Amino acid sequence: MTELRDLTPHAAIPLEQSTRDRRQRRLLRDYLPEMVSLERMLAEASERVQARVIERVALKEVTLPLYRVDIGSEAPDVPVLLLVGGVHGLERIGAQVTLAWLQSLLNRLTWDREMQDLLSRIRITLLPILNPGGMFLNQRSNPNGVDLMRNAPIEAQGASTFLLGGQRVSRRLPWYTGTPEKGMEPENVALEAVIRELLPGRPFSVALDCHSGFGWQDQIWFPYAYRRRPMRRIASVMALKLLWEQAYPNHTYAFEPQSRHYLTHGDLWDYFYKEVNRKGEGAFIPLTLEMGSWRWIRKRPRQLLRLEGLFNPMVPHRHQRVLRSHLSFIDFLMRAAANHENWLPAKAQEPMLREAAIMHWYREQG
């Protein structure tokens, strides 16, 4: 592993730096315990796990690393599962679910021979805390006040919801997109660099970005968010949905395009989907997990009195249930990616699946 030696203070470190490191660790423990958990996992992980810092976010009190974790085959032609968490700092549960799955995977690697064999046929890359500054500050945006999910260079084709769809009025208001002339924020630039290096040319890749959001039901969203017309590879999404429902017929996810709810400017995954699928014969499917937070609030209404209570389960047993309830879906995505050749539609099957997808998701739009 790389970039991990600096996680442990060394006797030769000057006193001033050692004191500063201790203060930083104390701040992380108090304000960003997810980072402490991640670094502990990586420090104890086997040589199968590669980790490095791809960006650093400097705040007044502390400098925060943005970690990339890679597990599995390094061959350039194997499929990829990309997991992202912590895009919105307030939605800590997204990073926590990603970390829970990573911990489960690392534990299984010590004894599960089938898992070890599976990882010879797939590459898994995680960015568990994409917005460490926002999580440290307990705010949705990054430290610059920009909503990372509204920051990509893509505009909505149609009327977007006021404010919610992205706004350029003020960084003091939520859903601020930033300004086009400044480009994407450093966290998104780091993610873009990972995607450009990792995904093009692969036969198949799938991403899952974990969030919480208002709603009574857990939802799996796929592009587009910037327009209501179907994405070009909608047949592959329909095939994945059918595969999931056959494997887990009693699931409770709503599987649908984000555009059924609202249109947004600057959606990250719309942008990356178009960039990766613009060239090559491979397929890239980005998904977003939106955990329905209204259920947690209904069962504990006093969560409304705390900002983080709007987006995260606050009762310990409910929090544990959420952490374990999504592991099966992530496992499914890992196995679906590793076995993509067994279900990804051939050209002869695509017209039928595309028609089925349009009838299922877009019929009401005429």
TrEMBL record:
Keyword Protease assigned: yes
GO CC term (a single one): extracellular space
Keyword entries, A-Z: Hydrolase, Metalloprotease, Protease, Zinc
Stored SUPFAM superfamilies: Zn-dependent exopeptidases
Gene3D superfamilies: Zn peptidases
Keyword Zinc: yes
Annotated Peptidase M14 domain residues: 66-291
Co-factor requirement: Zn(2+)
InterPro entries per record: Peptidase_M14
Gene Ontology MF annotations: metallocarboxypeptidase activity; zinc ion binding
GO biological process assignments: proteolysis
Similarity field: Belongs to the peptidase M14 family.
Protein name per the record: DUF2817 domain-containing protein
Organism name: Marinobacter nanhaiticus D15-8W
